[in-house]
């Protein structure tokens, strides 16, 4: 059992509704306090534990909640002792009498059940709800969840001035704190260069409604202080004002990808009584991941107004292709492969077909990721037919999310259709048309993701899911193997090999048997004899570094081939 698993199990077995502190766990398990703190925070990020506000911080399993926590903090006019409510017990949440927006959310009765109950409690808590912090990795659905909270508040008629979720991304002006604060709180004429008139900010605009602060960790300390003063008193001053204050009644929902304990002021965090941790895509069940994939495919089928046909291996490849970007990355990958399938099936008025040949190499490699995990492969295969067909308007209509960073602002399929018609008129054959349009698709999508800062460096995110020691080993192995083979690998080598090696090591350490090699992997071994020799060198390095018996280099060849 790993250190993290041991800590998680101890908290689950020994925690009451008040939770356990880092010191309690460290003393009981005789593990260094710093290591316990690190693992507890990792378990919170993974959605296995909740962190209760207060000092010292207490941790409880996801199915446990506390009603109140006493906290001492400093505010603008001096130190005060306050009793801040935390997540109410789920059974105390009143049953809504009108339609429940959350009911159609994938996972609302499974992996997100506790999060949904927390969200409902935050909205329905009298008299004006509770401020909420949503934590989750990039692409896990924080903005989507915030929109669902707003829609729930709207249907429960608890907003005095419902006008849509007011959204502000704190990262947009992080380089200019003055401009950032002027957007939030407004400003008076002459408060800075270009302030030619008085202007209200988003706080005033959201009066009677809900304000969503995305990437809240990018708020400067003075901004956090102004926000928590507003939480305490319901009043604020515009930039440049000294004697005058304004009142507003705003429900705040904040979101971050970071650990709030290390990136936000403690005085700010303590004023947010409900923390909702969203799980990473790969921590959700195979059933939920497949439902998410079908829902995203349904969106594309609606845009194309054709049914989409995928083979079983394509579905597995798409699910396995999600590495660091979670649901957002899955959506991007689906947009890409559907666009390519649309090109190849442009003359078919009723259906587009997507096969492995339509997938780019990085997505195709997802099939091997799934195949390398026997349990994962079995869980997904049980849910799949040989062919998946998704029709327009298939399934429930997803919540509209105007702030979805992964949503293209244009209809890519109309662009493809117009371009294909133009090229046909110019006399180009189907092969050349497909080649030109495929290039266009890549240009459009890469430009969009870069413009919206959705391109995430895999290596930057890798340390969140793989031990740094494995990454360091892979970097050294890359130089050795490149010298042996006489060519350089693509940028995804570190990512692909580190993930594969990490999974491989955990499997051997857990005593799980190696699965039989598939026909695809055996064919790969025959096709790449030089890479087998390189894999042998990697095998020896792994055995020396981790003292593990590795049965055959054939089991670790595929990342070499997919990263050529």
TrEMBL record:
Residues 465-564 form the PRD domain. This is Transcriptional regulatory protein LevR. The lineage of its organism: Bacteria, Bacillati, Bacillota, Bacilli, Lactobacillales. InterPro entries: AAA+_ATPase (IPR003593), P-loop_NTPase (IPR027417), PRD (IPR011608), PRD_sf (IPR036634), Sigma_54_int (IPR002078), Sigma_54_int_dom_ATP-bd_2 (IPR025943), WH_DNA-bd_sf (IPR036390). Residues 105-339 form the Sigma-54 factor interaction domain. The keyword ATP-binding applies. CDD domains: AAA (cd00009). The keyword Protein biosynthesis does not apply. GO terms for molecular function: ATP binding; DNA binding. GO terms for biological process: regulation of DNA-templated transcription. Keywords: ATP-binding, DNA-binding, Nucleotide-binding. It comes from Lactiplantibacillus plantarum subsp. plantarum.
